[in-house]
Design a protein that fits this description.
5-stranded parallel beta sheet, 15% strand, alpha/beta, Rossmann fold, 306 residues, 2 domains, 4-stranded parallel beta sheet
Length: 306
């Protein structure tokens, strides 16, 4: 089996079989990361460009490591200091880079649909590393991989996505992927940070954190994205932490241990207390490690079979 598309733009519409293929392929690459020699040759001779128009640490480094682990030649692009600062368009930037004979493009951009746009102007494989508020598919996949690794299955798993849902591309990819895989997904946050009609995606909405804690197997806690928000969506960070910040005291009411996830970066003691972030039930660092394996799987499946 192979992926139906030669690009990875999002998890919306991706089949259960395709997601399973990606997770299973990542599992084989995850073993490679524990070897003394972590490099394998599948993408030898391929050139991958990381086209990042937004700041990133984990995603950019994770993709670069994945590309190098697969023996690809890697070119890193940052908009600061480039011709973009002189007014060059995304189309011209991408086509000039493609003229240098590259094979794959990993793009992060503030505009929703930017990855989709590149598929219309380039012949290379396009991987979406986050486009505005739209999707972040590899983050959704690594979150699912981490949960499957922890619980053995995603079917019937009760996962709550907590926080700033409206401005989160991570939330959308998680909702699409987890519901496709049979998980029971809920979201929780202030009404001002939850999109209208999101129940249509098959999720249950909570506005009271104490109501969802007793039934959740895992919480995926999202960062409050102050840089994407208009003012006035909640009174203050202190107020937000009081009602929606996940703390050790609040999860103590749960009938069983709750797995704690976060895509990073963490606003400690705002959306998530430091003791939970660093606690025994946190899998946040495992998410980071698994991100390399997931991105290796995506690059491998797109670069060798599509």
């Amino acid at each position: 089996m192979k992926l139906k598309s030669r690009h990875l733009l999002g998890l919306d519409g991706m089949s259960k079989e395709e997601i399973t293929l990606l997770l299973d392929t990542a599992a084989s690459f995850r073993e490679i990361l524990d070897r003394p020699i972590k490099k394998v040759p599948p993408l030898q001779g391929k050139t991958v460009v990381n086209l990042f128009f937004e700041s990133s640490t984990r995603t950019r480094i994770s993709f670069e490591l994945a590309e190098r682990r697969l023996s690809a030649d890697v070119v890193n692009f940052a908009s600061s200091g480039s011709s973009v600062s002189k007014g060059e368009t995304l189309k011209d930037t991408a086509r000039n880079i493609e003229a240098m004979k590259i094979d794959m493009v990993v793009i992060r951009h503030s505009a929703p649909g930017s990855a989709q746009f590149l598929t219309r102007v380039l012949d290379a494989n396009i991987i979406n590393a986050g486009d505005g508020w739209h999707e972040h598919p590899t983050q959704g996949l690594l979150d699912m991989y981490t949960l499957r690794e922890k619980f053995g299955t995603l079917e019937g798993l009760r996962v709550c996505i907590l926080g700033d849902i409206t401005h989160s591309r991570v939330a959308r990819s998680n909702v699409f992927g987890l519901t496709t895989m049979g998980a029971r997904v809920s979201i929780c946050g202030p009404a001002t940070l939850i999109p209208r009609d999101i129940e249509d995606l098959g999720v249950k909405v909570y506005h009271n954190l104490e109501d969802v804690i007793p039934e959740a197997d895992a919480f995926n806690v999202l960062r409050i994205q102050l840089e994407r928000q208009k003012s006035g969506l909640f009174p203050s960070l202190r107020e937000y932490h009081r009602f929606f910040g996940l703390t050790k005291e609040k999860v103590a009411a749960a009938p069983k241990p709750i797995t704690i996830m976060h895509p990073g970066p963490i606003n400690r003691d705002v959306e998530l207390s430091a003791d939970l972030a660093d606690g025994e039930h946190s899998v946040i660092l495992q998410q980071v490690t698994n991100g390399v394996a997931i991105r290796m799987a995506v690059l491998y499946l797109l670069g060798t079979t599509n």
